[in-house]
Every structure is written in C-alpha cells, then in structure tokens.
Sequence to fold (376 residues):
Amino acid sequence: MAQSMITVAPMLVCAFWMAMLALDVKEHGDRAAHRALLLWAAAATLLYMGHCVFFNRDTLLLPLFDTLYVVCNLAVFPLYLRYLVRLTEGRVSRSTNLLVAVPPVAFGVVVGALYLLMTPLETAHFIEAYLYRNSFDSLAGLVWWMAVVHHAGKVLFAVGVVVTLWVGTRKVRRYNRLVDSLYADTDNRRLRGVTTILVLMVATCIVSFTANAIGRHYFAGRLWLLAIPFVMFSMLLFALGYCGYRQQFSFEDVELGTDGPEAAPEAESMGQWLAQVRGVMSDEQLYLLPDLKVDDVARRLGTNRRYVQQAMNEELGMTFSEYVNRLRVDYAERVLQQEPGITVEELGQRAGYATKSTFYRNFARFKGYRPKAAER
Fold:
C-alpha cells in the first residue's frame, strides 16, 4: 500500500498539471507556450505511469509500459527544452522538432518490436534478469539486444539532461535580458521566478541524472530508498508545472516594433546619445510614466531604439529596465525625505510603479533598505 502511494505520487502531480494546462489551452489558447508545456506534462504522466507498473511488479503490463517508458524517458527533457524554446523564441524550428521526436520514437519502435519478437520465456527472462537485477549474465540473442538498447537509452537520456540544462538556462537568461532592454516594468513579462526556474531545472537534472546512473533496479524492493527520489520528483514536478502554469507572457507578446529612423547626424558617439537620453529623461521625467518602453524614449528623441539601448549598455553597463528603475527609486527617496508622512502606495504610484510589491523590491534592490518611514 505504501509503495503504491509513493510510486503513484509523481504521476498524479503530472496528471494534475496536464488537466490544468488542457483547460487553460481550451479557454485561452496557446498563451505563454502552454500547449508545449501540456505536451511535456503528458509525456511525464506516461513516464511515471511506467514507473508505477515497474515498481509494483505488474509483469503482464510491463512490456507495454516499458516501451512507453523508454519513449517518454527519452522525450521528457527534450520536450521541456522545446517548451523553453517556444516560450523564449516564439517558434520551434523543424530541425528542433525532429531532434526532440526522432530518438524517442526510434527507440520505442525498436523496443516494441523486440518485445513482439521475443517469446514469453525470453520476455520473462529479460524482465527478471535485466530490468530487476540489471545483469547481462546469461543474456543471449534478442534478450541481449534488448538490454543493449535499454543501456543505450540510459546514455542518451544523460545527454538529454545535460543539453536541456545548458541550452535551457542560456535561453531563459537571454529572454530576460531582451525584456530588460525593452521595458521599464518587467514583472509580468520576465519569466516569473527565473531564479526559481533555473534552480528547479538544475535540481531536477541532478536528481534525474543520479537516478538514471543508479538504475531503477536498485530501488526495487527498497521502500525507504524509493521514497527519496519519488518525493523529490513529486515536489520538483509540481514546482515546474506551477511556474509554467502561472506564466502568461512570452516572446510572442514582446513588442519588438520597428527599428525607427536612423541616428541624427549630430550624434556622433554613444556618449552624446547618453547625454540626450539623460536630458529628456530628466527634463520631462519620462521615467515616472507607468509601463515606460525604450521605444517611447527613442520616439521622443526621434531616433532608433538600438542607439538608446547601446548607449546605456556601453556607457553605463545597464539595461533600460535597470536605468529607469534607478531613476524612479532616486526620485522616491527624494520625495520620502521631503514628505515623510507619504504612504507607500502613493509613493510607489508617484514613482511610476503599478504595485506596492514591485516598488518595495526595486527600492530595496537599489538602496539596500526598505522605505520604512513610509509604511502606514
């Protein structure tokens, strides 16, 4: 009973997010790449269904679910990477789709064919000798080839884990840098909890890599050992699903706009461009406008947004978001000194912030303390 509850937990977590994402896609369409995340959740559900069959020793169903397990085990990390690509780049190339789909399907076809070709005695011998004892001893013919294919799948899985972690973290960071360069207010545009997502990705990859290296056979019959990875996977999968489900903004929603007019002849250096940006921001206090965009500043200067971004990056080493929020916080600090009785809500609104929490976070980030004098 306890083993059944432990082994079914990750599957139920994945099934829950699969249902939630399916309802969300039905109601809102493919916002924030939720359809790609739904595909990942479906594969993860089938993967842990295969685990349930394996650890509960249902040998009659094992050939079918072991085949599904091989497919989904090789697909689950690439599918999550595909989701990140869809989320951060807006489209998934045909070559990426092929790289995600072909290896799992090919391995699944081979494993399924070998199960069909093996006799019942050979199947039983493979299950007992290799799946539950991880032994190549006494394996021969089709049984030996089946074990080789499973071993190759473990190696390919490890490669998929490393590639997903490396490529996924790079794409998440690049997307957030893009958002920071275009918008002053990024809370609802950045990947929510980017640090959390990256930490979860690392943790999931480490646990998966370790469990794959040890092998499922090692946990069979050891309830307390089995509980450790399954509880960890349940929590990690729930967190990954939660972060993805809450995300409502993606690359497709980014307002890239057009490049606009070329730079004016008199602006010959980035330093001059920065001086112009500082002038218009200071004179007109554009930084106090809610939801300010770099295009707004570029249009005010009659220039190309790339020059505004480049001036900030090269001369100040800041993104547009950081530059504007520093100005807002400086302004809020001055107001706070002049009007110590002002409320936090009013102070944040006057500084250009839509929410109290965003104001608090940015004030603490750039000033190193919270505006306690204004708490009322």
